[in-house]
Amino acid sequence: MSTNGATIYLKAEQNVEVQSKEVCVKDIGRLTCSDPHALAKAKSLRLWQFQEDACKRQVISILRVIEEIEKACPGVSVENLGETDVLVEWIDVDRHKGFLQWCKLSFVALISFFGTAFTIMAFHNDIGINDVFSKIYEMIMGMPGDGYGILELSYSVGLAVGIIVFFNHIGGRRITKDPTPIEVEMRIYEEDVNKALIATADREGESIDVS
Amino acid sequence: MFLRQFLLAVIGGSAGLIVSAGVFTVLISVGLIPRFAGKMHVACKVFVLEEMVIFGTLTGCFFSVFSEWGMVGNYVRTHKIFGNATEGVWNFAGMLIQLIFGLFAGIFVGCLALAIAEMLNTIPIFARRIGFRHGLGIAILAVALGKLVGSLIYFTQRVFMYGG
């Protein structure tokens, strides 16, 4: 086979989820090559086989991938443009569907709802918001207030507007195209978790690497 | 008179805007909601969670700012919403609401407390200083139990009457 001189460019992802037990090179990232034969051969190379009862998470070093590709297609050179370690997770069912998923979502949603309701109430209680408001009312109007007025109402409206601007959406519709702060935080958190898992696997020698 | 009312409205609106920004910056920077979503693998539905955060805050704001208008139990009892069975039905429903509110608010506050501790790096720094490699799980369990016991003592011994 005349694979000499061709270069396989590989762009590995940091975290991939696979549905089948076998992990191939094409699962961990994208590849391109001027030689279609070498490309097809490299893509279908098997890297790891998940066991039924073993850990469902595996860190694969890109050095091992390069070694495997070079062994299978002699003469090609491999260039990695992506991550240097790939975290592969095996999920046997599609976890983004189903009743359990719905239960988890409502559980987290209830925590978010009652938790934030409690925190804002505790905060208002802490600062004694009704005292503050009646004092402001008296200062401005020159007489003690009777019940709830424009100050309380505008405060609540202001709170709502502030949150909506802060979270950047109303009822599932974004105000601007930017990601919301929780989405940004979500990506940062995912990246941190991936890095920690990869570092732990490296330190404990559990990642698949060249010896 | 109109100008004064207008001033009140401006003060109230600005206070609300800044308070929401402040409260939510804390909430975002401790990264609690992403953690929930990450643990439960519901990251694709993060919009729903944000909606719940928004509505939760607004509900809490209503019940604490307009506390006299939020007397739902009193309203139900005086207007006999469920007819003659009102007492029994509302006693049960009230217990249920208390249970749900207490449980979920407790989970949230527990997570918030540890998330803040973690954000300030107290746990990692502590673990490194005393050179402890194993048993972090036991330490966390001890923290949780300590919080449980502390909370029970606080409510049963009426610490809130003397403290603060």
Describe this entry's structure for a reader.
The complex is a heterodimer of chains A (211) and B (164). Chain A is elongated. In chain A, a hairpin with a 2-residue loop joins β9 and β10 (173-174). Chain A is of the alpha/beta class. The longest helix of chain A has 29 residues, at 99-127. In chain A, the strands form four sheets. Chain A has a three-stranded mixed sheet with strand order 4-1-7, with helices on one face. Chain A contains six helices and ten strands. Chain A folds into two domains: 7-92, eubacterium ventriosum atcc domain (eubacterium ventriosum atcc fold, Sandwich); 108-202, no CATH class. Chain B is extended. Chain B has helices spanning 2-29, 32-40, 46-65, 72-79, 86-119, 122-129, 136-156. Chain B has 164 residues and is an all-alpha fold. The mean pLDDT of chain B is 82. The chains are: A alpha/beta (211), B mainly alpha (164). At the A-B interface, α3, α4, α5 and α6 of A face α1, α2, α3 and α5 of B.
Could you tell me the mean pLDDT of chain A?
A: 81
Question: What structural class results from the helix and strand content of chain A?
Answer: alpha/beta
Q: What general outline of chain B do the C-alpha atoms trace?
A: extended
**What is the gyration radius of chain A calculated from CA atoms?**
28 Å
Structural class from helices and strands of chain B? mainly alpha
Q: What is the helical fraction of chain A, as a range of percent?
A: 40-55%
Q: CA-to-CA gap between the ends of chain B?
A: 39 Å
Total domains of chain A: 2
Give unreliable regions of chain B as ranges: none
Order of helices and strands of chain A: EEEEHEEHEEHHHEEH
Number of continuous helical runs of chain A:
6
Rounded radius of gyration of chain B (Å): 21 Å
How much strand content do the residues of chain B show?
A: under 5%
3D shape of chain A: elongated
Explain the layout of strands and helices:
The complex is a heterodimer of chains A (211) and B (164).
Chain A: E1 7-12, E2 15-18, E3 22-24, E4 29-33, H1 36-43, E5 46-49, E6 57-61, H2 62-72, E7 77-80, E8 85-90, H3 99-127, H4 129-141, H5 150-167, E9 169-170, E10 173-174, H6 181-203
Parallel strand pairs in A: 1-7, 2-8
Antiparallel strand pairs in A: 1-4, 3-5, 6-8, 9-10
Chain B: H1 2-29, H2 32-40, H3 46-65, H4 72-79, H5 86-119, H6 122-129, H7 136-156
